[in-house]
Amino acid sequence: MVFPAADAERAVEALHAREAAEVGNPGWMRQHLALQRLNLQAHESVQSNSDNFVLDALVTFDKLGVIVHELLVIEAWREHVLSDPAVLKRVATHFSIRGYHTVFQEAAICNLLEVVLYHDYAAQACGDMLLELVDYCCRRVRWLASAAIRARQGGAQETALRRSGGRKSAATAEDADELDQDENARRENAGGDSGLGSDDDEAAQCLEDFKRQLSDIEWRCSVAAVSILRFLCEHVTQLPLGVMTRLLDTHDVPCLVIPLIENPPWTRRTERGTWEKLKDHKWAQVPPQDLLLLTPLEAQPWLVLFNLLCEGEVRSRYPFHSFRKDSILRIRKYLNPTLVDQLPVLSDLQRTLDELVIMDAPPATKDSRFVMEQVAEVRDKLLASTDWSALKKAALEDIFAGKEARDDPLVLELAGLYGDDHVEALLSGTPAEADPAQEVIAPPAAPARRGYPASAKLFLQTGAIIDLAPVSQQGTVQETSKGAFTRYQLRLASDSQVASLDIDLDLPDLVGSILKLEFTDSLGEGTVVFSKPIKASQATGSEFWLKLGALRDGALAQVQCTLAAEEGRVTLGSVFLSCQGAATRVVTSGSLP
Asked: What confidence tens digit (pLDDT) does each residue in 418-446 have?
């Protein structure tokens, strides 16, 4: 585990929006370190198919809006402060570790949002920042599409130049020789000190490496933005109406993603004539016979189009005119049977395009209707209210002044962040191997002591205590990823102060309405499991289950709840307890409110 659950919840609770003037200072760097660990832990939870407590904490403490705000801040800082040549050179040559991690904040946040926004309730928890996130994703998609077109045009020019040969090649060689001579003359006139020339070469190399890292981070952010945009389009009917308006009218996302299909940035042809595709942010060679096999990145723009053009509510708000019709029909030739077999949902998109062919679309005209829509003002306010000249000066004279100390604890912690065995295993996609020496000398594990829960108490936020007892001493054994668990159903104890489990709780008090459950097994040992606070918006149906504890802690309780939103109450129902064996420790999968 990269980040224990209790530490992760405390880190999430401590997150807060910071100003652009704080970027790079010690407090900002510590929050950045916490965000990186949260990102790694969220990915580990997804890979291991375990409880994603990072996502739960972000939703519970309402911090997803803060995450998006931090994304906008680092983007603006990169564009308006780091773009200054003096700041860029200082960071590249004197603060390589802190500088890289400062810019990497944008990629880490994009990567985290790429994981959590898979769930619709996480997107809903972003609130008004959803408009800002849509704008950011569309800016990144435009950059990605233009970069792909420039790369293909550059490759075509290089190919034509190689094929032309003759006089152009000779001229190119002469130009190169002249540039080399000019560079040598510049070095000789730099003061005659060979050491100075060596320092200049090292600084130039550092600057070139840092620029390459910046380009790689921009690329990673843009690729992640495509996935985030796809999730937003998938959840668009459950999001505020302003998000749909932003996607369809302001940015015209269906037309925006067309270049990603025509000139896919995740496919390239090398100078040797082989084909490569981007998989897990790494270029992998693909045999010619497998070029039509779809990668997850290639599927994203197709799914964006499917969600926006085949969803009835969305399509009714997206009127077609001649420009939109011609633009979207450009991808019709790519919808072949091989593609549809891999993404069967595209058969609906294919039918939609067939209908669009025979549709008589009106010419594109300026819409004269009066439209009132929500405005994304966070980025505009950030750009207008920040003195970027002062921030450039502060970066040179304060934040990135002097030289990076190699023994700085923060620098050492940043540099060693990815040296942990769990992180290396996570990045490689393989489980970490145990030390063979430890396997030899480790004593065999003692068998788990299995005692049935003789008694239990359910503590409510209202102060009420419900005494419970098992329906039967014989539970049901279930195999889980954490080993064998025995599941017991609990009922009201004969001496309980309440007459029934049918207890009403006020809907506003749903968060933290159940504090904890204590039980003592037949061996006389007790265990406490705390509830995981949830929001009422997470209850997607009239009936749901509230979880207390987790399998990894050795004890898990589940309480059946019935939600009556129109009546403003929640009713408790059945209670089940699964235990791996009695434990004397306190199990804390969540913090006591």
From this structure: 666 556 555 555 444 433 333 333 333 33
**Sign of the CA dihedral running 304, 305, 308, 312:** negative
The gap from C-alpha 204 to its chain's centroid, in whole angstroms, comes to 34
Mean pLDDT over residues 88-93, rounded?
92
Q: What is the spatial distance between Cα 390 and Cα 92, in angstroms, rounded to a whole number?
A: 20
Cα–Cα distance measured from residue 163 to residue 336, given in angstroms and rounded to the nearest whole number:
34
Task: Give the pTM.
Answer: 0.68
Looking at residue 404, its pLDDT comes to 79
Token pair, residue 121, equals: 């309730």
Q: Are 466 and 501 in contact (CB under 8 A)?
A: yes
Query: What spatial distance separates the first Cα and last Cα of the chain, rounded to whole Å?
Result: 24
Instruction: Sheet containing 275-279: give its strands across.
Output: 267-269, 275-279, 282-286
**Which one has a higher pLDDT value, 520 or 589?**
520
Helix axes 129-164, 64-80, angle to 10 degrees: 40
Calculate the alpha carbon distances from 14 to 45, 112, 471, 532 in Å: 21, 17, 42, 18
What average pLDDT does the segment 141-150 reach? 88
What's the CA gap between 261 and 413, in Å, rounded? 41
- The Cβ of residue 144 has, within 10 Å, a number of other Cβ atoms equal to 23
Q: How far, in Å, CA of 232 to CA of 311, rounded?
A: 13
The radius of gyration of the chain from alpha carbons, rounded to an integer in Å, stands at 29
Provide CB contacts within 8 A for 48, sequence distance 6+: 481
